[in-house]
Amino acid sequence: MSSRSFLLAGTLALVLLPSQLPAAALPLIRTDWSASAAEAGWIVAAYQLGYALAVIAVLPLTDRVRSSRVIAAGALATSLANVAFAFGATDVISGSLLRILSGFGLAGVYMPGVRLVAQHAAPGRRGFAVGAYVAAFYLGGSLSLFATGLLLEPFGWRGAALALALIALVALPLAIMSTRGLTEMQGTRAHLDIRVLRHGPLLRTIVAYGGHSWELFVVRAWLAAFLAAALVARGSEITDASATASQWAAVLLALGVVAVFLGGWASDRFGRARSAFAIALASGAISLTFGALFDAPWTLVLLVGAVYGGLIGADSAVYSTAVTELAPAGRIGSAQAIQAVAGFGIGSLGPVVAGAALDLGTGWLGPFVVAGAVGIACALPLLGARSRERHAAA
C-alpha cells in the first residue's frame, strides 16, 4: 500500500471510532431508556440502516463526481452527527435518528475508499491491497469498543460518546490529505443502474456479501452484551461487566484486522468465490453454537471468541474486491451501491431480529443462531462460482 492508502485507511478508522459506542454501552443505555432487546437492536442497527439509505445516491455519484470530494463530505457529516448523539440522544427514537445520520456520512467514506484503493492496486495484489484498507474498518470498530470500555466508568456512556466524537473530527483533514491529487477512473452517469445485476457472478457475490454483513452486524451488536451478561452471571456488577466486556469484545473483533489481510491474500491465490465460501462456512458453524458457551469456562469463551472474531471479518475484502472486478465498466458505483444496500440495509436488520430472538426467550443461543443460519444460506450461491473458478484455473 502507498502512503496515501495508509492515510485513507486512517481516515476510515477515525470515522468509525464512535461507531460501536451503543453496542459497548448497550446494558447501560437499555437501563437509561427502558428499552427492550429489540429496541436496543434498532439503536445499533440504525447506523447500518443510515449507511444503506445513503449509498443509493452517494455511490452512483462516484461514477461522475470525484471520490475524493465524496470522502471529505462524508467524513464531515458523520463527525457532526456523532457530536450531536452525545448531546441530543435521549431515547430510542432520537438516538436511532442520530445514528442514521452518522451512517449517512460513513457511506461517503467506506466504499469510495475501496474504489480508490482497488483502482490504484496491481491486479495480482488487489485483494491484499483492498484487504489492508478494509482492515481499517475492523480496526476502527474494535478501537471503538475498547475505548468505550475504558471511558464508561469514569465518564458514563454520554461522556464517552462526546470524547470519541471529538477525536473523530480529525478524520476530515486526514481525508483531504489522503485523496489530494489522486487520479480517478470515472464513468458518464451519476445515478443507480440496477442492470448491473444481470451479471450472474456479480449477483451471487452481492447475495453472499449480504449474508456476511448480517452475521457481522449481529456479532458486533450483541457480542459485548453477551460477554457482559456472562460476567454478571459470574458475579460482576453491571457497569464493571459492561466495561470489561467491551474491552474483551474489542480484542476478539480486532483479530478481524489480521484476518482481513489473510482473506485478501487467500483470494488472490485461490480465487475470490472459493475463499469467501470456505470462510463463510467456518464462521457460520461457530455462530450456530457460540451462544451455548454462556456457562462455559471463561477461557474457553475467549478462545472460541478469538477464532470467531477473526473468521467473521476474513471475507470482507474478498467481496469488496470481487465487486470492483465484476462490475461493468463505468458502473462500479452502481454495483457498490447495490452491494452496500444488500450488506448494510438487509444486514442492519440482523441485530433487531437477534434481539427479538432474545426477547422470545431463546437465551443467548438464539441471537447467534440467527447470525449463522443466514450467513451460511447466503453463501451457498458461491458454489456455482467456485466451479467456474476451477475451470478457469484449469
In short:
This protein is mainly α and 394 residues long. 81% of the residues lie in helices and 0% in strands.
How many structural domains? Answer: 1
CATH class wording: Mainly Alpha
Order of helices and strands: HHHHHHHHHHHHHHHHHH
Q: How does the overall form come out from the CA principal axes?
A: globular
Count up the helices: 18
What's the helical proportion of residues?
over 70%
**CATH evolutionary superfamily:** MFS general substrate transporter like domains
Which architecture per CATH?
Up-down Bundle
What is the mean pLDDT?
Answer: 84
The overall strand count is 0
**Could you name the ranges where pLDDT drops below 50 across 5 or more consecutive residues?**
389-394
The share of residues in extended strands comes to: under 5%
State the end-to-end CA separation: 31 Å
- Rg to the nearest angstrom? 19 Å
Structural class: mainly alpha
Q: Biggest sheet: strands, sense, closure?
A: none
CATH topology: Growth Hormone, Chain: A
